[in-house]
Design brief:
Chain A is mostly helical. In chain A, 74% of the residues lie in helices and 0% in strands. Classes of the chains: A mainly alpha, B alpha/beta, C mainly alpha.
């Protein structure tokens, strides 16, 4: 099989990677910047990392963000996969709108609406309210990706399985799911990203004692987004990378994004 | 389930929402009301939920308070009064003490969101500067106590101003295109209709608290013309831009310019960031401490406010960020270089020209909103 | 189809669609309905919404906020402007993401996971800090600004600042949305059967023809998904124009935010939001129709 990739594709892919990483390199490099500002390189220091470890608020916020993102992305992935499947397979009238609309609706409207709704229900605001809100807007992303994946899938495989006597759920588990897994994983990655970085909706649905990293960081905007923020971003990145590497070692099948 | 059933379900839900919207005005009952009735000997303790601006409470102060009362302060932050007001308007609760600016304070009082202060629990009130007490926002200080203040002034890069031959001590350097365009693309103004319109009014010699639509139109026209000389509307990163030298002149808060100057010095820049109260006058923003009506821990809230009224505690904030201090007893603890800063501690002459912003009525607010959008589009 | 299979498939349908539907109805549809109703309500005197019931017991509703939309042309202008920005962002994202997604899909298995992770990794750092990084990169002191101004200087054009400009807004918009184009495209491209391309080559088609007649049509669902996930959020975003836009860099998202904050006019904010959402959904719906892969007789 001929798998030669044209040179210009390599070139443009490399350029895109550079585009993606240039700001990140700046972020990491500036976490060692000996200046309160995030603007010019002054000198090298690891003081910001030291300061970060003494900053309980920031660390708790980071922990909360990770926790919420993990829970929200898992639940959103499950619900989103189901929704994507339903969108592809069945003629649904309401679900397509309900799935896409959260992506379209301005975050500030949704944030205010969810807050009013939670207050109506007398639900205590806190990490739970934030997670519930995040799931709501992440489902759509997963659903659309899964549906796109299903659209390219060969239905005859499923039919063959059914012909061999598999029940619908067995056919799903052993045939469909493995085939759409790359789409599911892609969707869950997006959901995780969206959740860990959300500000507006989180701002409105967070309680008095629940803080996430974006909330902490945005509140610093008026004073100075110090390199402490760069430091925690770098650390969070490394941590997530570590988590994924470990997970890949422990359960290689779990993270298989390709066949 | 047929389409009909689904439609019926939606109609039911819609109506429920409509009806539900009526009855939802009651807040969940404050849980720890009993604490306020406790006998006076029991020292207030527990957790204080403080809804505050970021970096608006010195770490030393927090540590001292927590030690003295065996309590814990949990801070939640907002970076804009409007964000805080929107959240409270949608029904959020759980905050003990909130730190709104005076015009936001007016909103909270008029909405009935605050509980009256128990003055018996605030013996340190006598420390306050009388000229900042008993304002039209809160006559008799029934609900609030001033915390810190800052002025909205012009900050500038002294080297660049000299080079351009500009005198930044008046609003012409912002609003007169003939002057402003000499440093075109290096000016930012706050991204706030409150501040920009007020500055425009002060320049035009109109009372910033005007409610006349014509005044607003006049100011909007002038702002639109001046806008072409500006780089951006920026409330968040202008400190950074000033300290790095990208921006040479900005309309901003005195506390921010104090910080920008410190940052520029730390970055070993060859210029200073100075600020002046414009000759025509400026806006004074006083931040206040209030207790939300459904505060979980009102006893500790009162204790905190009284604690912050002590001279030493109040002074720590001024020393940290260069904010103006409403506490007379604090003055002796404030660093001389902060006290010397005239845009932070203006002399009597300048104090007369300072104006506090009042709540703008809804009608004018919306009209101003439309003008603001036009300014930003055209 | 027999009765039992019809029932079974109907049961299956609600088994699969039920949970997400229920969740979205409770945590999305109902809160949104609250705000749709809010668009008919009257703004509260001090912000928020006025009580739903007037003193006399009637309903305090009004269409005034919808009328405000037509008070001035600026809102329509802003919608158009935001539409264009979102469209440009989507087009650029597609152009940038397609080769990359294709490359990842064609790469050896052992590299694919890593390459995909590398695409999304930057986005697990905070949004604000990444935009700040762009402000540094696009600032006048850095190589990029200097290089461009040097080039312009040769031609005799005055130096331009890259920051606080529409260009900065587009660059950052593209940056922020890129992974949401790469991932769906990849998920779709990965499943393409290489045998189809080989067959096409054997039939004499050269690279462009293979792309146009085989790869592209098959990838349309992925293109659509990616485009939707970029266009729709970009249409309503406010953070990017706020941070790097110039004095006239705002988009409709900024005006909506303004209604909830400075203007304290929630009903009008709802009206604008409804128009935004309906427009976005309509555009997506139309695109879905256009992007449906043409199924020729196979």
């Amino acid at each position: 099989m001929n798998r030669i990739v044209p040179g210009w594709v390599w070139g443009s892919a490399a350029a895109v990677y550079l585009f993606l990483y240039l700001p990140l390199i700046v972020v990491v490099v500036f976490s060692f910047n000996d200046s309160k500002l995030n603007a010019e390189w002054v000198g090298f220091t690891t003081a910001w990392y030291a300061k970060l470890f003494r900053n309980d608020e920031m660390l708790v916020a980071a922990r909360n963000s990770l926790l919420i993102a993990l829970v929200a992305s898992v639940i959103a992935t499950v619900l989103g996969t189901m929704a994507g499947f339903a969108l592809h397979r069945y003629q649904m009238r309401v679900l397509p709108v309900l799935v896409v609309a959260p992506i379209a609706i301005p975050e500030i409207l949704m944030g205010v609406a969810l807050l009013m709704f939670f207050v109506m229900l007398n639900l205590t605001l806190g990490l739970v309210s934030i997670t519930l809100s995040h799931i709501a807007f992440c489902i759509g992303y997963v659903a659309l990706v899964v549906r796109a994946r299903l659209a390219g899938m060969d239905e005859s495989l499923v039919e063959a399985a059914r012909d061999c006597g598999a029940t619908p759920s067995e056919a799903f588990r052993y045939v469909t799911l493995p085939l759409i897994l790359p789409g599911v994983i892609a969707g869950s990655l997006m959901a995780f990203t969206l959740s860990i970085d959300d500000f507006v909706i989180t701002f409105f649905t967070a309680g008095a004692q629940a803080s996430t990293l974006p909330l902490q960081i945005y509140s610093m905007v008026k004073i100075a987004v110090t390199p402490e923020v760069n430091a925690i971003s770098t650390l969070l990145l490394l941590l997530t990378l570590l988590l994924i590497t470990v997970a890949a070692r422990i359960a290689p099948g779990l993270l298989r994004m390709n066949d | 389930m047929t389409a009909q059933t689904l439609r019926a379900l939606f109609t039911v839900v819609f109506c429920a929402v409509l009806v539900g919207g009526c009855g939802k005005k009651e807040e969940p009952a404050p849980v720890k009301k009993a604490e306020a009735e406790k006998p006076a000997e029991t020292k207030p303790t527990g957790t204080l939920n403080l809804y505050n601006w970021n970096n608006y409470l010195a770490p030393e102060t927090i540590a001292r308070f927590e030690k003295q009362f065996d309590a814990k302060i949990v801070q939640t932050y907002f970076s804009d009064n409007e964000e805080m007001l929107a959240k409270l308007a949608a029904g959020a609760t759980g905050y003990d003490v909130i730190v709104p600016t005076s015009n936001a304070l007016e909103v909270l009082i008029k909405k009935g969101d605050l509980q009256p202060l128990d003055l018996a629990k605030l013996p340190n009130l006598t420390n306050m500067k009388p000229e900042l007490m008993n304002t039209p926002f809160d006559p008799g200080n029934k609900f609030s106590v001033p915390y810190a203040y800052s002025t909205t002034v012009i900050g500038f890069n002294d080297k660049r101003m000299k080079a351009a031959g500009l005198d930044p001590r008046g609003f012409e350097v912002l609003f007169d295109p003939a002057v402003a365009c000499k440093i075109k693309g290096h000016i930012t103004v706050l991204d706030s209709p409150d501040e920009v319109f007020s500055a425009a009014f002060i320049y035009l010699g109109i009372d910033p608290n005007t409610t006349s639509n014509d005044d607003y139109k006049r100011a909007a026209e002038m702002i639109k013309k001046a806008k072409s000389c500006w780089a951006a509307f920026n409330s968040s990163s202008y400190i950074k831009e000033l300290s790095t030298g990208n921006i040479w002149l900005a309309l901003g808060y005195s506390v921010d310019f104090f910080q920008a100057n410190q940052d520029a010095a730390a970055a070993k820049q060859d210029f200073k960031i100075l600020s002046v109260i414009p000759s025509q006058g400026a806006v004074l923003s006083v931040d206040n401490m209030v207790i939300h009506k459904s505060a979980p821990n009102p006893a500790l809230a009162h204790a905190f406010i009284n604690f912050m009224l002590e001279g030493q505690n109040a002074a720590e904030l001024s020393n940290l960020i260069g904010s103006g201090n409403a506490n007379a007893a604090a003055m002796q603890y404030i660093k001389p270089e902060v006290k010397a800063n005239v845009s932070v501690f203006p002399d009597a002459e300048a104090m007369k020209k300072l104006r506090q912003l009042r709540l703008l009525p809804a009608e004018q607010r919306q009209e101003r909103g439309r003008l603001w959008t036009e300014i930003k589009v055209r | 189809m027999s009765d039992t299979t019809h029932q079974a498939s109907s049961r299956g349908k609600w088994f699969v669609a039920g949970p997400p539907l229920a969740y979205l109805i409770v945590f999305f549809a109902i809160p949104t309905l609250l705000m749709v109703v809010a668009s008919l309500r009257v703004p509260g005197e001090f912000g928020g919404l006025a009580p739903l019931q007037t003193e006399s017991g009637g309903l305090n509703l009004s269409l005034k906020s919808y009328g405000r939309f037509f008070e001035s042309l600026i809102y329509l202008q802003l919608f158009a402007k935001s539409f264009v920005y979102a469209l440009v962002t989507t087009a650029i994202c597609l152009a940038m993401a397609y080769p990359l997604a294709w490359l990842i899909a064609r790469s050896a298995k052992k590299y694919r996971d890593l390459m995909l992770l590398l695409v999304i990794l930057p986005f697990w750092s905070n949004f604000l800090i990444r935009v700040y990084a762009w402000m540094i990169i696009l600032g006048p002191e850095w190589a990029l600004g200097r290089a461009i101004n040097a080039l312009l200087g040769l031609v005799g054009i005055a130096p331009v600042t890259l920051m606080f400009s529409p260009l900065a807004v587009i660059i950052v918009l593209v940056y922020v949305h890129l992974p949401f184009m790469v991932l769906p495209l990849y998920a779709n491209l990965e499943k393409h059967d290489p045998a189809l391309l080989d067959a096409a080559r054997d039939l004499g088609a050269h690279a462009w023809q293979r792309f146009r007649h085989v790869t592209w049509p098959l990838s349309l669902p992925g293109v659509f998904a990616g485009s939707a996930l970029v266009f729709i959020p970009a249409f309503g975003i406010f953070a990017v124009p706020d941070l790097v836009g110039g004095t006239d860099g705002i988009m409709i998202g900024n005006v909506i935010k303004q209604q909830f904050l400075e203007s304290r006019d929630w009903p009008f904010g709802s009206v604008l939001s409804i128009v935004l959402t309906v427009t976005a959904l309509a555009v997506t719906g139309l695109a879905a129709l256009a992007a449906r892969p043409r199924r020729s007789a196979t």
